[in-house]
Amino acid sequence: MFCVLPVRAEPLLGTVVDAQGQPVGGAVVYAVAAKHPFRVCNNTIMAGEAVPRALSERDGRFTLEADLASTVCLFAQDMEDACGYTLLEGNTPPYRIAIAAPAKTAVQVRRGPEPAPGENLTIVQSTGVPELAIAYEGKTNAQGLYRISALAPGKYSFRTWEEVPQVGCCFRSVVTRAAEADIAPGSAPEITLGGTDLPTVKGRIASSEGEPLHGVWVRLLPKTPQVGNPVVHSAVTGRDGTYTIYDVPTGAYEVRGFRRLALNDSARTLEATADFTVEEGAKEATCDIAVDLAPFMPLEAGQDAPSIDATALSGEKVRLSDFKGQQVIIHFYAAWCAICVETIGSFDDIAKKIGGPGAVAVLGISLDESEAEARTFAAEKGIQHPVIYAGPWAESEIRKAYRVINVPTTVIVGPDGTISHIDLYGEVLQKYLREHMQARR
After folding, report:
1. Cα separations in angstroms, 258 against 174, 245, 423
2. How far apart are CA 54 and CA 40, in angstroms?
């Protein structure tokens, strides 16, 4: 039998002083520990009630009850947003916390020579203490400015960012501009993001017939690998299909266009790529891309389903023609797709509920990076229907034949072997199959 011993709190003694070494009364002192995430956002302490704290007396002294073994540092902040911290490692009590007067700053964000309003901005201080995060977040105003009236002194990274869609239905944040600065106590620096003398890249994304494609997210991916959290040089095409990307370093790039396609009530996506080089000394460069839209269009109802003749993970031979006379749910998935993980079990349940044995068949098409990954995933999820490993993504002939451009994707094949519907899931899929089963009767 095991028992959990309570954490033993010990008194931590110390003093809060200002930059001149004078005692500071009325400052709140917090014990920062690995088990209690501690974040200061826009000068507001984002810490729960579980974080031990104390108030400094008029003479600056404080007594704080905390677990000495887990406490990493002590953080103090006064009513004027002056703050500071001290590490416990290497120090002996009484601990001394020096708080510094806050600075002021104005961050100017530009798109080329013009101000950039409405930009997401995150400013993070490099404290060197993983358990302590000091950040400022907001959006630029109509003049492309973001002002902070009280900024804790220190070394900072300035980043603009935006949420962009990925394959499937996921979004992720990408950094679009970056700068570093060391902010001194009481200073008032001005920081500029963008608006450099680096080249500008312009272009037009259109169909192979010349029709403009608007709303395409265009990225420039450097051929030379970048370390850390690199800046993503990107833009979105307008109604005329054109885009402009400012402040692009010279070098070789892969230009990649991405857009959601609102087709057939699905989350289908379009992707287009081209190689491109921004030459040394150039002020401006142009990269146009013509996109053949046919591979991104879903298969149409009434069209013959592409043949499938492969070996399932179980070792059995699987031919689509063997399922003639049944409704067949072909679902394309991958273990790295979060939605696929959530929905994979529903297909066997639907097949059992609709029409009885032999009426509905399910065929899984795995697009994982390796067959080993596909086998592991199928075993973990207890998949009962045949699964064909058809990956990896870029090389899958079955995926290309069925025009699958994101996962999950479902293709419903009717009893006559023709496509009857694309991208149905859950209750909607169940209702569709039940209606079609009744119609046949």
Report:
1. 14, 15, 20
2. 17
CATH number of 200-296: 2.60.40.10
* CATH code of the region 103-193: 2.60.40.10
pTM: 0.70
Sign of the C-alpha dihedral computed for residues 301, 304, 305 and 306 taken in this order: negative
For the record, the structure tokens of 406 come out as 């994101």
In this prediction, residue 227 has a pLDDT band, given cuts at 50, 70 and 90, of low
pLDDT per residue over 327-374, tens digit each?
A: 999 999 999 888 888 888 889 888 888 866 568 999 999 999 999 999
- Burial (Cβ within 10 Å: 0-12, 13-18, ≥19) of residue 15: buried
Taking residues 28-39, what's their average pLDDT?
89
What's residue 2's pLDDT? Answer: 41
Domain 103-193 and domain 309-440, same fold? Reply is no
| Spatial distance between the Cα atoms of 251 and 231, rounded to a whole number of angstroms | 14
Token pair belonging to 285? 């460069």
pLDDT for the residue numbered 3: 44
CATH class of 10-98: mainly beta
CA 159 to chain centre: 15
Architecture of the domain made up of 309-440: 3-Layer(aba) Sandwich (3.40)
Q: Which of 211, 293, 221, 219 is nearest to 251 (CA)?
A: 221
Q: How is the chain split into domains, by residue range?
A: 10-98, 103-193, 200-296, 309-440
Q: State residue 209's pLDDT score.
A: 93
Contact status, residue 101 vs residue 185, Cβ threshold 8 Å: yes
What is the chain's mean pLDDT, rounded? 89
What is the C-alpha R_g of the chain?
29
Cβ contacts of 215 within 8 Å, gap of 6 or more: 236, 237, 259, 260
Tokens of 148: 């902070």
| Nearest residue to 247 via CA among 173, 156, 160, 176 | 176
| Both structure tokens of 265 | 């009530």
pLDDT at 265: 43
Closest CA to 393 of 384, 402, 381: 402
Collapsed DSSP state (helix, strand, coil) of residue 320: helix
In terms of Cα–Cα distance, which of 71, 74, 66 is closest to 14?
A: 74
Q: What is the pLDDT of residues 128-175, one digit of tens each?
A: 899 999 999 999 999 999 999 999 999 999 999 988 765 545 667 889
Give the residue carrying structure tokens 């149905």.
424
E strands present in 140-292: 145-151, 154-165, 171-183, 190-193, 200-207, 217-222, 233-236, 242-245, 251-261, 268-278, 284-286, 289-291
